[in-house]
């Protein structure tokens, strides 16, 4: 098994080393019940001040998922689903195989849509009188990230850390039927440590992985990681610094983005996809003036890199099940706008006209 992506690692002495030339990875057995300390260490405090997604989510630990949550089954054959904790532990195993010499941050896990239940002996007990051991619950939707803090790059003074993660939504499964392939979303990209925004592009994202077992799931995760070209992703993000929006350009984009969702279908089909809604666009407009790290300069100009980070910042208010798709779309949109600044023939120029 090889990885052909090249990453940049900066250690505590500020030395930079390129590595990743077709590295041979030794097979590592997967023992999910015993992944207690897979080279993990606690994240720095700055991470917990700003979660990678907000919306209606709450933070939980891997221990909470393993010890406090029941696992849904497919009702027609009572076959167990691949649980949230198995998804995360399988990702840890895959990352360990691809980056065997790297320490990993403790997974940051966000959940939403809690499904509550009770044990059979509590069938006739009033809800207010339930004991803790009589309550059951699981979370319908879950997103997680795992940072590889030893693999970093800096863009415009912003430290980016290699980050891998995924999303699981039980609402995408037909749990009332027999067990079949289960669906997962998985990505590899970078996290901007200034704002904790995720930077994900198309090559590092798989919107639907179908798997029957955690071994099948791990194999497909490895394929995503191997297919990701980190250098290309980083270079594209660096290129965003070469283009800037004037205040007029920015206002034009905001106005056209507000119009976009109301266009007739035939006209909309001719334009690039924009997945951010009015709420996101309002946040971008507000942060153009107020964001501490990515607001306009004294002349009202803003670089496309800063514009991109305003988009990813607004994406934190997306629900778990649309979060990654919108993050990828924010990257594509920013790159498209930068191209439109020098080429009026591109269909992204509609947003600037």
Helix content: 25-40%
Shape: globular
Report the span from N to C terminus.
Answer: 48 Å
Structural class: alpha+beta
Number of helices: 10
The radius of gyration over CA amounts to: 22 Å
Low-confidence stretches: 1-38, 44-48
Number of domains: 2
Could you give the order of the helices and strands?
Answer: EEEEEHEHEEHEEEEEEEHHEHHHEHH
Biggest pleated sheet: 7 strands, antiparallel
Give the averaged pLDDT, no decimals.
87
Q: Into which percentage range does the β-strand content fall?
A: 25-35%
> Tally of extended strands?
17
Task: For this entry, give a set of tags.
single chain; 353 residues; alpha+beta; 2 domains; two-stranded antiparallel sheet; globular; disordered N terminus
Layout: helices, strands, pairs:
Layout: E1 2-3, E2 7-10, E3 16-19, E4 23-24, E5 40-41, H1 45-49, E6 58-60, H2 62-68, E7 73-74, E8 79-80, H3 84-98, E9 104-105, E10 108-118, E11 135-155, E12 158-169, E13 182-192, E14 197-199, E15 205-211, H4 214-227, H5 230-239, E16 244-245, H6 247-260, H7 265-269, H8 278-290, E17 302-303, H9 304-314, H10 320-340
Parallel strand pairs: 5-9
Antiparallel strand pairs: 1-4, 2-3, 6-10, 7-8, 10-11, 11-12, 12-13, 13-14, 13-15, 16-17
Helix pairs in contact: 3-4, 6-8, 8-9, 9-10
């Amino acid at each position: 098994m090889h990885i052909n992506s090249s990453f940049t690692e900066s250690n505590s002495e500020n030395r930079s080393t390129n590595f990743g030339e077709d590295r041979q990875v030794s097979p590592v057995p997967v023992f999910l019940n015993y992944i207690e300390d897979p080279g993990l260490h606690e994240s720095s405090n700055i991470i917990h001040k700003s979660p990678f997604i907000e919306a209606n989510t709450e933070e939980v630990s891997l221990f909470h998922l393993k010890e406090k949550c029941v696992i849904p089954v497919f009702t027609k054959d009572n076959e167990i689903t691949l649980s949230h904790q198995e998804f995360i532990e399988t990702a840890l195993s895959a990352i360990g195989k691809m980056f065997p010499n790297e320490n990993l941050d403790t997974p940051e896990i966000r959940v939403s849509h809690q499904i509550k239940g009770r044990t059979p002996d509590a069938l006739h007990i009033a809800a207010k009188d339930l004991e803790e051991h009589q309550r059951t619950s699981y979370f319908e939707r879950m997103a997680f990230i795992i940072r590889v803090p030893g693999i970093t790059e800096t863009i415009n003074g912003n430290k980016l850390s290699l980050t891998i993660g995924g999303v699981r939504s039980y609402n995408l499964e037909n749990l009332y039927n027999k067990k079949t392939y289960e669906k997962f979303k998985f990505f590899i990209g970078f996290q901007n440590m200034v704002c904790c925004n995720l930077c994900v592009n198309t090559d590092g994202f798989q919107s639907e992985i179908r798997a029957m077992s955690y071994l099948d799931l791990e194999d497909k995760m490895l394929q995503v990681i191997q297919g990701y070209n980190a250098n290309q992703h980083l270079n594209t993000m660096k290129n965003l610094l070469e283009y800037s929006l004037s205040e007029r350009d920015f206002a034009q984009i905001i106005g056209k983005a507000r119009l976009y969702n109301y266009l007739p279908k035939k006209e909309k089909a001719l334009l690039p996809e924009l997945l951010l809604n009015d709420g996101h666009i309002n946040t971008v407009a507000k942060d153009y003036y107020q964001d501490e790290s990515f607001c306009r300069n004294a002349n009202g100009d803003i670089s496309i890199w800063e514009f991109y980070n305003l988009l990813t910042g607004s994406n934190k208010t997306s629900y778990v099940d649309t979060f990654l798709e919108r993050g990828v779309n924010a990257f594509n949109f920013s790159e498209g706008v930068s191209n439109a600044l020098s080429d009026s023939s591109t269909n992204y120029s509609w947003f600037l006209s």
